[in-house]
Write a structure and sequence with these properties.
By secondary structure, the protein is α/β, with parallel strands linked by helices. The protein has 7 helices and 7 strands. The protein has a domain of 156 residues: Vaccinia Virus protein VP39 (Rossmann fold). The chain has a 7-stranded mixed beta sheet. The longest helix has 26 residues.
Length: 238
């Protein structure tokens, strides 16, 4: 998920790992734990800064792919290949694994991308996908949809893939807190310069309070899986 832009981004980038940041509740990017033992070649669709590569074991090969319209101009990505995820320039059954994290909301036809992932996976190989469910528009105009868990299940099934696991990416209380913090920060970011300057300090205090309260409450309050910032799934090609 992209960072906020404009005024708030300039202030908050230095506070990225602190509860003053409106995205603090997201934590660090979710690295699929199964990849810590991965062998073979892994395709990373929407690779961005290639953060996945740094976490892979020495037994893994890595192929980074990104789309020029977003990867080059929004994220300054440095992939091995610039290409369209809906038409992967790879042979059938050529990949030992695929990751496609926080990308499907940015493609015009997510079902087609999932079919392409199914095509390039070797039989028995797995892919890890994630997509936001409750999250603001970002990377406009390249932000096209949000899927429920059942939307993901539908397209995975239609692509001929088996679902191994599906889980919410964030506790319901933290998801609600994340949206509240982003609403506060987004309002400041969208305000005229003078008003933004007036609102900056109270906004920072509100974000801090919301983040800390949401984090603390989520430690003991039951989760509600119908409300989450997103979903992460693992799928397998039969």
């Amino acid at each position: 998920m992209s960072r906020l832009g404009g005024r708030w981004r300039r202030l908050a980038d230095g506070l990225r790992r602190t509860p003053f940041h409106p995205q603090w509740l997201l934590g660090v990017p979710d690295f699929p734990k199964e990849l810590s033992q991965f062998t073979g070649t892994l395709l990373d669709i929407g690779a961005g800064d290639r953060w996945i590569a740094a976490k892979l074991p020495a037994t893994a090969g890595y192929l980074a792919l990104d789309h020029p319209a977003t990867g080059m101009h929004l994220y300054r990505a440095a992939p091995d290949v610039f290409a369209d995820a809906a038409a992967l320039p790879l042979p059938d059954a050529s990949m030992d694994g695929v990751v496609c994290l926080e990308v499907l909301e940015h493609v015009p036809d997510p079902a087609r991308v999932i079919r392409e992932i199914a095509r390039v996976l070797k039989p028995g190989a797995s892919a890890w996908l994630s997509m936001p469910f409750l999250y603001p528009v970002h990377d406009a105009p390249f932000d096209f949809q949000r899927y429920t868990e059942y939307g993901l299940r539908r397209d995975i099934s239609r692509a001929g893939l088996e679902l191994s696991s599906c889980r919410p990416s964030l506790h319901a209380v933290r998801s609600a807190g994340l949206l509240a913090s982003l609403a506060i920060a987004g309002g400041v970011n969208a305000s005229p310069t003078l008003l933004a300057a007036i609102l900056l300090v109270p906004a920072a205090a509100l974000v801090l309070a919301i983040n800390l309260a949401s984090f603390a409450l989520s430690m003991f309050w039951p989760d509600w899986t119908a409300l989450s910032a997103g979903h992460t799934v693992r799928v397998k090609r039969p």
